[in-house]
Amino acid sequence: MSAKNAQAGSSLWRDAWLRMGRNKAAMASLAVFTLMVFLCFVLAWFCKDPNAVTLTNKFAPPSGDHWMGTDALGRDLFSRILYGGQISILVGLVATAVSVCIGVSYGALSGFAGGRIDATMMRVVDTLLSIPFLVVVIVLQAVLSDWSSDTSSWIVTHWKWDKTFTDRLTNIVPLFFALGLFGWLTLARIVRAQVMSLKEREFVEAARALGYNRFRILVRHIIPNTLGPTVVYATLTVPGFIMYEATLSYLGLGVEAPNSSWGILIKEGANFMETHPGLLLIPGIFFSLTLFSLNFLGDGLRDALDVKASKD
Amino acid sequence: MLTANNSTKETPSSWLILSCLFFLFAGCESETAVDKATREGILLMGNTAEPKGLDPHIVSGVLENNIISSLFEGLVVQHPSKDGVALPGVAEKWYPVNKARPDEWIFELRKDVRWSDGKPLTAEDFLFAFRRILTPDLASDYAFMLFYIKDAEPFHKSQRAYLLFRNNDEFPLDWESLKKVDFGPNEKADEKSFNRLGLDHLDSKQLEELKKEPGRFTWPASVSEDVRNLIIDKSLEFSNSGRDLWDLIEFGATAPDPHTLRVKLNAPLPFLPEITKHYTWFPVPKHVVLNHGSIGERFTEWTKPQNLVGNGAFKLKSWRFNDHIEVERNPQYWDAENVGINGIRFLPIANLFTEDRMFYDDLLHVTYTIAPELIEYSRKNYSQYMRNELYLGTYFIRTNVTREPFTDPRVRLAFSMALDQEAIIDNVLQGGQKPAGGLVPPFGGYPVSSSVKFDPERAQQLLAEAGYPGGKGLPDIEYLTTDKETSKATAEAMQAIWKKHLGANIKIKQMEWTSYITNMFDKNYDLAAGGWIGDYMDPLTFLDMWMKDAGNNRTGWHSEKFENLLDRAGQTSDPQARFKLLAEAEGIFLDERPILPLYWYTRNYLLHTDVKGWDPLLLDNHPYKFLKLQRSADAPR
Amino acid sequence: MFRFILGRLLQGLLVLLALYTITFFLAKAMPGEPFTTEKNVSETTKQYLRKLYGLEKPLWQQYIIYPSKIISAGDFGVSTSKGRPVNDIISQSFPVSLVLGLGALTFAIGIGVPIGIISAVRRNSWVDWSLMAVAMVGICVPAFTVGPLLQILVAANIPGLKVAGWGSPLDFLLPAFTLGLVSAAYLARLTRGGLLEILSQDFIRTAHSKGLSPTRVILKHALRGGLLPSVAYLGPAFAAMISGSFIVETIFQVPGMGQHFVNAAIARDEFLLMGVALFFGFLIILMNLASDILTGLLDPRVRIGKEAS
Predict the structure, then answer these.
(1) What is the DSSP string of B555-599?
(2) Model confidence over A218-276: pLDDT tens digits?
């Protein structure tokens, strides 16, 4: 990439930033999201032990001791939410990032290449879409369950990492694998549809007439124009990933009990909706607030990037 | 095209139109589903899942039992309120030939019993049913329930060589001396060898091959060449003759006349009538079964709704897959005028919460269970319907005695004594379960054990003696459990309890059902959640599973002393002396404690007050014919 | 066009073959076998059962036998966990799922697309934000929460609506709502996003400057292109809706097809598993084809016929 292009690129992003700064909803969302990250990743370390069981103190109402009450085993709900948020935010963001990277490049390539390549690539997507996900999870669980503990103990003995921390980390790696494997499929279809429409547009033909090579056209002119729907769809998939994590954890592929995540808290809280709605509502509020902010942030980002469509 | 199967005949659009029409009339409904069903005499019953079938010889579950026991009836019938009491069923009278040694029984059948198609039911139908469930080709999971009958086991297991030689004078050896030879299939054997299939299961062609290449079956060195050849030759001769193994055995069950059934057992069995309450002992209509296939054919059409013929108080009315099964009065039933209800509708409701909410919404008379999370809520709002009854089952945690640290009985005892049963029952399960004092739950005249007790100090002491003071040196312990919410909550509670009292680090491994079972089979665990529900009213149903080769042991634990006691009990006729021996065996088992008993089951469910004549039963096998449906005064809303 | 569709269907056969191969080997790779139960099933019995289902044969034979039975007799095998033919199971449960899925689709499109349009037109106003917030609620609240909430709050209080069950025609309302909710929310967001993309383009500006009313511009010019992401999303989503959902079916006691995907996997019921997987694969192929054709119709610049060459 030449220096000139790099500069043009950076000013584009700077413009986008400026535009985003003027978007009230996006800025408010950014504040909320930052707050969530701060709560989960900083404040959490100063909270009570999220796994301390006090059976006699189950379902305690909020009090000075337990700000948001306790759960069915008498554990502090607030610190469980904060610790759980670490996993959920991480899973949501990493899985989405992975699926965006694969989905955009795959979809764009397929739509742009057209013909046989496109047909083959899209039939691969059809196949992957049809594979029964649960079977994959069961097989992965069987294959990777020993992997997690082995890797963890290897790291602990060789690199002297903290054991609890390493266990938590190695447990969720298979999760990224499972989610990343299938998360990008619909996104690839969406991007492809966009690219197929875009590549027949005037500005692409103009670029072609100027003699730019195909790769440059794809990367510099077409992909940026698909970013709008991509951002919108990607933010939509975050809650899906976070909830999937709960299901997978129950199947032994993810967070190991007694550790928690928002998905698990909501799943378990839903069972008490008649008797202790707080167990569903409070984690649900944290979860929804984060996702609201992510989506409005995504909208802001989309708007900020939008101007290129006519500018380019 | 791949999916060109006959997928649908209903047109969805007509459905939609219909539903729009019904919108208009929906408001008029005022009678609840339960009120309507009570008026019509139909019991609405939650039954967890779609049955695997209705063939009593093929299914093996509780939910299938619930349906089958309405369609078929055995020799005797469970008393509606008294455990362990038998009422006349197809048999009018039953008694052991020799009271002092009840190893042979006579059942006098009623002369007026008919199948639901009007054909008379005779002792021949029972003999046919016994032979059918034991037929190896049918591959019944539950055939072992009939192994008490003389020669039932060798026939079911196709023990050809044994049957050929046990009474054969030409045979140079005592058959017992061949005990070391594994004639049956051995799944661990090399795939190419005949040991994998088992010598007893080879057909003529394979036996010929073996004659040419004797190396394909590995014998123990103690068996001489002559004996080997003799066994192979005789087996081949028999296989070529085309005869059935059935001809070789002296089967214990016989019919001296069409209305008498004689059952000769391997050993005295004072509680045989109790066992015949189980559906594996039910008769099946010979004329119908053979009409749709041979005796050993597993999938025939005879249990299809239009073909099914039974002898129970009810007969099949309609069956919509995954939606409902409905049975109605069987006019041919011998006691038809005393059947209190007109029919039963079984609903396969898998989601416990849905089931409970359907009950709250007056869509069910009785639920299969209550979601533990809803017990508190039900107690508060629907207390008049709550049922909490003792059930013949024990929940326990298996230890893997082949893996450190549970190779040491002291560690097992320590983990058991540190397990605060009451705290878990009161706070996590909340279903009124009883802390398990031993393996066998309380019932009848059996002396209940109370050796399992919560004693954290002693537990710590034992753990220290085993070399892990305060949990120091204990490896991470893997606790295997299922993907259910309650299993997880229980696991988390125990994890905290063991951490607190023993300083042990438990890692919880959750898996879906089959992976969990498979890992348990492969002994790929340290601790594993488990449980056992009794098949019949006798301590033996809880004890004989811990013998060395019993398929449900899975702990790696075994003890000769324990097995000797069980053997001796098997030869004892006096019930008191027998119970004493069994209790002694249980004592040995608990001293070694390969499993950590947690609680004795209770059944928690919701029962509508319109249902009369439904009393607590330990096996939860309520005979439907004694039920009545009557609008009760305290009807809801 | 005809050649294009034919070509796609032929490619579909290859997809099904690939799908079959993957599912077959995945099913074999799962720990345990169909006859693993908590009861003590003897090795002898297991051997008979394996023989009965043809599972004792070498893997490559099994791999060939199943599809050849499908091709020669349309026979998808017998389910090991339900003890009945897979054909029966699919033919009895698919119509139910189809009704439910069509209901859910109607609901999703009927609510999602209009919300998306309104939001796009009133971009970054309070109307937009509140509509998008509603859509977000639809996405954030998972089906296993929506379903029970509907049961407790709606069904228990309105006579005529049952908590669960599938017998009277009204029974499909609540499950269809639950099933369609997430898709409605997705469609709202995707429609809005797609429209905004189009609205900033030159030809729309031209239309505006010509004095056409905004509604007319949207409906006549922008909507076609704006719906592209939604249409691409709907292909797999619709296939998923009409093949049922485990969660919705178990909550509302619907005898649909979705539960078999889960139950077959857990029971290691490989014939049922492959049967429903192939059926679902077939639906995916059809629906993605339909969605691609629709893309071509909406946006004439996308020449779909080209790829068949």
Answers:
(1) S----HHHHHHHHHHHT---HHHHHHHHHHHHHHHHHH-SEEEEE
(2) 888 888 888 888 888 888 889 889 988 888 888 888 888 888 999 999 999 999 998 89
Per the listing, tokens 């009927």 go with C110
Q: CA nearest C152 in A: which residue?
A: A274
Q: Which of B7, B19, B53 shows the shortest C-beta gap to C83?
A: B53
Best of A116, A196, A279, A291 to disrupt the C interface (most C CBs within 10 Å) is A196
User: How much is the average pLDDT of C143-172?
Assistant: 88
**Whole-Å CA distances, C60 to B269, C57, C92:** 50, 8, 31
Q: How many Cβ atoms from other residues are within 10 Å of residue B388's Cβ?
A: 16
Strands B314-320 and B386-399, sheet pairing: unpaired
Q: Which residues of B fall within a CB distance of 8 Å from A142?
A: 515
Query: Are the Cβ atoms of A135 and C142 closer than 8 angstroms?
Result: no
Would you state the pLDDT for residue B194?
86
Segment A150-170, tens digit of pLDDT: 888 888 888 888 887 888 888
Checking phi first, is residue B32 left (phi over 0); if not, alpha (psi -120 to 50) or beta? beta
Residue C299 confidence (pLDDT) above 80: no
Distance between CA A126 and CA B479 in Å, rounded?
A: 39
- Would you call A14 exposed, middle or buried from its count of C-beta atoms within 10 A (0-12, 13-18, 19+)? exposed
Specify the amino acid at residue C129.
Answer: W
Instruction: Enumerate chain B positions whose Cβ falls within 8 A of a Cβ in A.
Output: 353, 371, 373-374, 376-377, 423-424, 426-428, 476, 483, 485, 488-489, 491-493, 495-497, 507-512, 515
Number of neighbouring beta carbons within 10 Å of residue A185: 20
Rounded distance between C-alpha atoms, residue A291 and residue C139, angstroms: 9
The pTM for the full model equals: 0.89
Contacting residues for A140 by C-beta, under 8 A, at least 6 apart? A174, A177, A178, A253
B533 CB-near residues (< 8 Å, 6+ apart): B62, B391, B392, B393, B601
The two most distant CA atoms of chain B are separated, in Å, by: 87
Find the closest chain B residue to A264 by CA distance. Answer: B485
**pLDDT at B93 exceeding the cut of 90:** yes
H-helix or E-strand spanning residue B508: strand B506-511
Q: Which residues pair with C188 in a beta bridge?
A: none
Size of interface B-C (CB pairs under 8 A): 192
Give the separation between CA B100 and CA B98, rounded to whole angstroms.
6
Residue B176 Cα distances to B163, B165, B172, B312, B407, angstroms: 12, 11, 12, 44, 33
**For residues B481 and B397, is the Cβ–Cβ distance under 8 A?**
no
Gap from C160 CA to chain B (nearest CA, Å): 5
Residues of chain C in contact with residue B201, where contact means CB-CB under 8 angstroms, are 44, 47
Answer whether residue A106 shows pLDDT above 70.
Answer: yes
Whole-number pLDDT of residue B9:
35
In chain B, what residues touch C48 (CB-CB under 8 Å)? 136-139
CB C182 within 8 A of CB C144: no
**Single-letter residue type at B184:** G
pLDDT at A307: 56
C-beta separation of B544 from B552 below 8 A: no
Q: Do C151 and B354 touch (CB under 8 A)?
A: yes
State which residue of chain A sits closest to B372, comparing Cα positions. A271
Range in A215-229, B378-392, C66-80, C84-98 with the lowest mean pLDDT: A215-229
Instruction: Residue count of chain C, please give it.
Output: 309
What ipTM does this complex have? 0.90
Output A21 or A309, whichever has higher pLDDT. A21
Tell me if B504 sits within 8 A of B551, measured CB to CB.
Answer: no
